[in-house]
């Protein structure tokens, strides 16, 4: 991977993304119509989210207006969205991962109406590479996934199947709480919204997959705060910020790319029972290495923050951070998304 810093987005591109962010934060997107899927899970009934997985009323203008915040906060959302799109583009343009991205997009696009799916009526195979359009489609995919019911595990469920259900309920609740306020969450987590207990359960029976999956999904709120490391006001020394900013940006892009790559592998592995193309692009022997790469990049970024960040910035980025348990272990997803939570004590 190239380590050179990337130039900032052109002004007209940034303006487009700003308009999109404002649109997402101000107006309700209509729910996409139900569509059929070739997945074995497509027979599941669609309904509102399980009561065990409370879902905010996505699309209520009064809620959105109260959460829009200042112009600087909207600029912050724009910057975050640009970073996630840039990381996505790095994966899609890389010959070693482009096949994974294509398979992933074809799987999650089953949540879209037929006319918006890749390959429909001569359209390209794969979702749009234009950032604004991709963001809109990913938001639709994420909301469609969140609209499907995932019931609580019953007493008759097997232990592992129950773990898959409980994890998905908490993941969905976490993503739903972030989606409207952070448009980047659609790019970052649409794939996890497409998972079902039936398809996820066999994967979580393997410790190397389970450990990485729980760690990464448990840190979703944490990852969505990390773009603040590129704010000048997050640094105690402006000369140090100017000197290290290109390195911090590259580290952040590398982290986002690693997260997306792991998510795409999980989604394709879950779909491999019915999708041969997905089976062929999964790094079946690389689960631990992929999860370790995410942790290492997160540690590298937080190292910059701990050494150079203001107390406020460090507290904000640490408050949702969950470190891997001592000695590995499968761990369990925790639902800990309240901004009032105290910062985690680092070991």
Automatic annotation (TrEMBL):
Pfam families: NACHT_N (PF17100). Residues 16-29 have a biased composition (Basic residues). InterPro entries: NACHT_N. Residues 336-347 have a biased composition (Polar residues). Residues 34-52 have a biased composition (Low complexity). Residues 82-301 form the NWD NACHT-NTPase N-terminal domain. Residues 1-76, 324-347 are annotated as: Disordered. This is NWD NACHT-NTPase N-terminal domain-containing protein. It comes from Fusarium avenaceum.
């Amino acid at each position: 991977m190239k380590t050179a810093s990337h130039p900032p987005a052109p002004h007209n591109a940034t303006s487009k993304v700003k308009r999109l962010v404002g649109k997402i934060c101000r107006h309700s997107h209509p729910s996409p119509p139900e569509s059929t899927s070739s997945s074995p899970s497509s027979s599941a009934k669609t309904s509102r989210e399980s009561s065990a997985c409370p879902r905010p009323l996505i699309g209520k203008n009064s809620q959105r207006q109260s959460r829009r915040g200042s112009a600087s906060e909207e600029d912050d959302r724009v910057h975050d969205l640009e970073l996630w799109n840039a990381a996505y583009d790095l994966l899609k343009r890389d010959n070693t991962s482009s096949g994974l991205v294509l398979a992933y997009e074809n799987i999650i696009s089953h949540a879209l109406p037929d006319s918006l799916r890749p390959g429909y009526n001569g359209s390209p195979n794969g979702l749009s590479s234009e950032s604004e359009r991709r963001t809109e489609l990913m938001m639709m995919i994420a909301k469609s996934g969140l609209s499907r019911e995932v019931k609580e595990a019953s007493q008759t469920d097997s232990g592992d199947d129950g773990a898959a259900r409980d994890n998905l309920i908490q993941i969905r609740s976490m993503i739903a709480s972030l989606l409207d306020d952070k448009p980047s969450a659609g790019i970052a987590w649409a794939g996890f919204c497409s998972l079902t207990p039936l398809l996820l359960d066999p994967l979580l029976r393997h410790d190397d997959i389970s450990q990485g999956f729980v760690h990464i999904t448990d840190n979703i709120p944490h990852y969505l705060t990390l773009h603040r490391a590129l704010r000048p006001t997050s640094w105690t020394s402006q000369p140090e910020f100017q000197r290290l900013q290109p390195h911090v940006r590259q580290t952040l892009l590398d982290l986002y790319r690693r997260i997306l790559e792991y998510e795409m592998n999980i989604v394709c592995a879950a779909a491999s029972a019915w999708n041969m193309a997905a089976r062929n692009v999964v790094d079946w022997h690389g689960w631990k290495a992929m999860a370790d790469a995410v942790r290492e990049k997160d540690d590298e970024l937080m190292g910059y923050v701990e050494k150079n960040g203001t107390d406020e910035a460090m507290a904000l980025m640490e408050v949702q951070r969950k470190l891997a348990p001592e000695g590995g272990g499968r761990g369990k997803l925790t639902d800990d998304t309240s901004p009032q939570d105290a910062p985690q004590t680092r070991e």
